[in-house]
Amino acid sequence: MITFIVSKFHALARQAVIQYGVNPVIFLTIYLSGIPVFYYSLFRMIRALVKKLETDIWVWSTVFLCSIVAPFLYVLFFGRNLPWWVYGIIALLIGQGIFPLIRKLRPTN
Questions:
Q1: Long-range contacts made by residues 32-38, C-beta under 8 angstroms, separation at least 24?
Q2: CB 67, CB 37: distance < 8 Å
Q3: pTM, whole model, 2 decimals?
Q4: Strands (E), the chain
Q5: CA 87 – CA 65 distance, rounded (Å)
Q6: Which of 17, 54, 64, 82 could form a disulfide with 86 if both were Cys (CB 3.0 to 4.6 A apart)?
Q7: CA dihedral angle for residue 66, residue 97, residue 19, residue 29, rounded to 10 degrees
């Protein structure tokens, strides 16, 4: 059973590399390696917001955004023959990372 599942995964990954130029293993590696960076930058950004350190807020918010967007930029830059809706989903996911960040950084009165 496990051998069947692994062989199906390898076949799908091979097909994705051949057809779209995107290796799912590389995407997953970028995605998973960004998780610690995501949480650490979120922690540092919140701490900078509490202490009102503007320079640190911008630095850590940029790191936060890059950790969210990195795997999708891999697909955007290295993918080929992608359907049009994939670009729409990537734009939505990037927007999903940018808009909450803008709301957090906007000064409240």
A1: 34/67, 34/68, 34/70, 34/71, 35/67, 37/63, 37/66, 37/67, 38/64, 38/67, 38/68
A2: yes
A3: 0.72
A4: none
A5: 18
A6: 82
A7: 50
**Tokens coding 29:** 């590696």
Q: Which amino acid is at 2?
A: I
Burial of 72 from C-beta contacts in 10 A (0-12 / 13-18 / 19+)? buried
Helix, strand, coil shares of the chain, percent, nearest 5, are 85, 0, 15
**Contact at 8 Å (CB) between 63 and 36?**
no
Output the CA angle 42-71-2, nearest 5 degrees: 110
Extract the tokens encoding 45: 């950004």
Nearest-angstrom CA–CA distance, 20 and 56? 39
CB 56 within 8 A of CB 48: yes
| Residue type, position 72, single letter | F
Contact 69, 101 (CB under 8 A): no
Q: Is the pLDDT of residue 108 over 70?
A: no
CA–centroid distance for 54 within its chain: 24
31 and 67 Cβ atoms separated by less than 8 Å? no
